[in-house]
């Protein structure tokens, strides 16, 4: 079952997400990001780069690094980031 997460920060190389579940550094993940204008979520292979300490509710910030994103995925991310920060 997929783990739902809150996207805190997004860049071309990775993202910072808030998770309830703990993942080990280096663990592979499949990240699905709903971007405006896309019918289906953008799928990116990632690995856990770092994990912060859990808060009282058990949630922790986790940094993920995208692993070999396709040119299409980078273009879609770039367009979404450019639109978001206009």
Protein architecture, described:
- The chain is of the alpha+beta class.
- A 5-stranded antiparallel sheet has the order 1-2-5-4-3.
- The mean pLDDT is 88.
- It is 16% helix and 40% strand.
- The chain contains 1 helix and 5 strands.
- The chain has a domain of 51 residues.
Provide the descriptors you would attach to this structure in a database record.
about 90 residues; alpha+beta; five-stranded antiparallel β-sheet; 1 helix; 5 strands
Topology:
Blueprint: E1 6-10, E2 14-19, E3 28-33, E4 42-51, E5 60-66, H1 71-84
Antiparallel strand pairs: 1-2, 2-5, 3-4, 4-5
Please state how the strands of the largest beta sheet are arranged side by side: 1-2-5-4-3
Largest sheet composition:
5 strands, antiparallel
Task: Give the % helix.
Answer: 10-25%
What is the number of helices?
1
Q: How many strand units? A: 5
Estimated share of beta-strand residues: 35-45%
Radius of gyration: 13 Å
| Averaged pLDDT | 88
Q: What ranges have pLDDT less than 50 throughout 5 or more consecutive residues?
A: none
| Shape designation | globular
